[in-house]
Please model this.
Amino acid sequence: MGFWSLLQCALFLLLVTALVKPVGGYLLRVFNAEKTLLDPALRPIEGLIYRVARINPTEEMDWKRYATCFVLLGLAGSLLLYGLLRVQRFLPWFYFSYHTTPLPPDLAVNTAISFSTTTTWQAYAGENTLSYFSQMVGLASQGFIAGGSGLAVGVAFIRGLSRDDSRTIGNFWVDVVRSILWILLPASIVGSLLLVWQGTPMNFQSYVEALPLEGGRQVIPQGPVAGLELIKNLGTNGGGFFNANGAHPYANPTPLTNYLGMLAIVVLPASLTNMYGRIIGRPRDGWLLYWVMTFLFFLGVLTTLWAEQSGNLPLARSYTPISEVSSKQWSGNMEGKEVRFGIGQSILTAVTTANTSTGSTNSTDDSYSPMGGMVILASMLLGEIVFGGLGSGLYGIIMIALIALFLAGIMIGRSPEYLGKVIGTSEIRLITLYTLAGPVILTTLTALALVTPAGLSSLTINSGPHGLTETLSAYASCFANNGQSFASLASNTVFYNVTTPVAMVVGRYGLAITALALAGRLAVQGRRPRTVGSLPTDTLSFAVLIVGTAFIVGGLSYFAVLALGPIAEHLMMTGAI
Model:
């Protein structure tokens, strides 16, 4: 296993860890409306928005009203984006000579729902399908709006757990406005300027045609790439300006931009754990959740590195390993990976994006080894509890912690409690609903795709175990609002354009509403004092319990389908079966 690859991962996690506390403190000040350096510039804008939109910032909402506003904003975003995509040929910066891929109603609906749910499942090639206007006004705006609303839900969930005898969990519109103005917008401006400095284009020029020496014609797309690239990662949207996404040299020109993209994806979700610990008055609890996430992340990187640097064993036996040819190179599976980034940065990015709601890839998942691809798939199947999306990652890992508390309570014969709140029958029902939504939706949609001619017609290259993995990964990615895919699945069909939004909507709104309902129920309760019989939630033993519960829940839910997919493919590759 490559030393430099492990060092890159270690440095990345070290940098994230260093940023967690200061960013967490900043998030706390923003959502508590405390003083920040940006207040003189942003307070007047915030007040103007409230006046124009007739929002009373002092009025708080219960969880039902909060959830309703969240759904309505997503619905409005989907409808507006759909309308824009349908008329894009009549709007500025649409080049008929280059934007040649048709955008029928089913693909437009899929794209609109995809971006308004931060899924960014792209069944199209950006440079051939969408105009600059659609990319910037349509897609980039959803990076701010959908990302900000997801962050707002996460903050409301934290409030619900921290409050006592309260029927409200905050004001949705205030949380969204502050998410965008104080967090996403300034970070995007700074980050986009850094991308331009590194060579990412930011222009509105027409495409350039070049005449290569070997003959023929090469079309070089242009556009406001930097304006979309940073917010796609920061807002956990992940939709690439180009079909190659982060592997394109315009979108991701240097190793530094690759690192900036990964930091934009991870830092905010990771810092929510610190904000959570501060709000509930138990900083150690927040750090424990962060270290559980970090452990699972590093475990995923190690497993994928082992799988990819082992490569295809039967093929490796037939050729001289690269490491024997040159000591400066490391053998392994380079298929589908950018030579600029190699195996190390490709895997670090793949595991980072698979564990969040950001499917911004710089390599092809379909070309990974069976076990490497399984880590990417399993990360999405577990509900992206490792860092996760803006807001969703935090309540995802807390749901697992609550299941762990319930199991521990059964073993010792006590009613489970968390933060002094009783996890009773009603709360357990909500947690169960949250946990079972994924397995029910994913296995149902995957089975439907594999038993119908319309679903099977998209498996144009691979069948057998790999075909099963491709199909399951498509729906898992959509349910996790991630968007990355095994690219050999021909997903631009009416069947997939209609069925994948089902997973997107349930994964976005179904889980968020369930989390808000749980937060609302816990906010109403009073807080019991801690006693000798209370299970500590800031110890190593509780961390082990969370990790074990995550694997148990994931294994019971998905082991059978994983055994038929990537595990069977790995055994076939090694000759075991």
Remarks:
- The two ends are 26 Å apart (CA to CA).
- Residues 161 and 519 are 6 Å apart (CA to CA).
